[in-house]
Amino acid sequence: MIVLGIETSCDETSVAVIKNDLLTANLISSQHFHKNYGGVVPELSSRAHLQILNPLVKSALEKSSITLNEVDVIASTAGPGLIGALLVGLTYAKGLALSLSKKFVAVNHIEGHIFSGFLMDDKPEFPFLVLVVSGGHTLLLLVKSFTEIYKLGSTVDDAAGEAFDKVAKLLGLGYPGGPKIQKAADIGNPERIIFPVAELKESYNFSFSGLKTSVLRYVQQQGGIDKIDNQHIADIAAAFQFAVVRALIQKLKKALDNFDVNSVSIVGGVAANSLLKEKATELANKYKKKIVIPNLEFCGDNAAMIAFRAKTLFENGISHNLDYKPYPALDEHSFLSL
Ligand code: KG4
Ligand code: ZN
Predict the structure, then answer these.
(1) 196 CB-contact burial (10 Å; exposed 0-12 / middle 13-18 / buried 19+)
(2) What pLDDT sits at residue 35?
(3) Is the torsion defined by CA of 71, 321, 300, 52 positive or negative?
(4) Residue 25: φ, ψ to 5°
(5) Stretch(es) of the chain classified as CATH 3.30.420.40
(6) What confidence score (pLDDT) does residue 333 get?
């Protein structure tokens, strides 16, 4: 079976091909120009997807040594994401499916991330705990099978990646914030400042907006960002990164104490963070659980995870009609029990 996957939910245009269980292409074109605006500009994102998608599909087919006619399933992210951006990939995929009489599968972007660990050689084993940490979402989930996903907790305000992006902006480090904070933190002292994180003790929920405000207050107390030297900025970045990772690890630990699982997986853009990887690996080793953190190319937004999720849905007898509409929020069209 050959699956063509398309991802255009935010600022990455990506096309992937899975051919008989083998990923033969995962092309990702990132819209770097958004950094000039300090964040993703939706209208510019849609236009850029429109320009690059067709050439990217052609390259992915060439790289996989196949023609469009050989594809069995055409899949696209349908949500959550930016509506205009989603419309580009979804409409393109539906158009192809219609003109070539192929099966069409609409994929939930978060479900794509949840199962992205399966793109690795060493895959998660059911049941597993997964921490989805991206720019738009922070979720802790118990995954029992490809169609049974239970939400344990989520953020009550900012997503982890969003907190990285906002604090990086505040520290004058630029966009996207995650990699910039990590780089600054590499030479910083995480113990110079202790930033508190709301614990929300009885639940598996997260809260990062208070942390963001603490960093803002701290910067203001120093007389503003212009009064802070580079080493001090690196120390703030390191302390902030430490606080986010501590909060994520605390809830993961609580879930490991309460659920009998075989594996732990950390996915989404923030899973690229080296401190989070290190602490999550330490924790999983302590509990003697297998840990799967996808490679960088599968952590951020990519079509390989969309093609893989589509394949699992199709194998479970699921495909979609061509009147399928894009959706902005997570709570629609998903296997998640919220
Ligand atoms: O999953 P993703 O590519 O897009 C969304 O679906 O949101 O995640 C992007 C997020 C951004 O907020 C970015 O700052 C964050 O992932 N990120 C990181 C790192 N690399 C990317 N956060 C922390 N450390 C990193 N190394
Ligand atoms: Zn994502």
Answers:
(1) exposed
(2) 81
(3) positive
(4) -155, 140
(5) 2-114+298-315, 123-293
(6) 77
| Distance, C-alpha 189 to centroid of its chain | 28
**Residue type at 1 in one-letter notation:** M
Dihedral (Cα; 334, 175, 221, 192), 10-degree rounding: 80
The answer to whether 241 touches 190, Cβ cutoff 8 Å, is: yes
- pLDDT of 201 above 90: no
Q: Is the pLDDT of residue 4 over 90?
A: yes
Cβ contact 31:42 at 8 Å: no
Mutate to test the pocket of ligand 1, among 267, 270, 276 (most ligand atoms within 8 A of CB): 270
Distance from the Cα of residue 178 to its chain's centroid: 12
Q: Which of 26, 109, 164 to mutate to test the pocket of ligand 1 (most atoms within 8 A of CB)?
A: 164
Q: Who contacts 317 (Cβ-Cβ below 8 Å, separation ≥6)?
A: none
Topology of the domain covering 123-293: Nucleotidyltransferase; domain 5 (3.30.420)
- Cα separation, 138 vs 132, in Å, equals 5
Which CATH number is 2-114+298-315 given? 3.30.420.40
pTM given for the model: 0.94
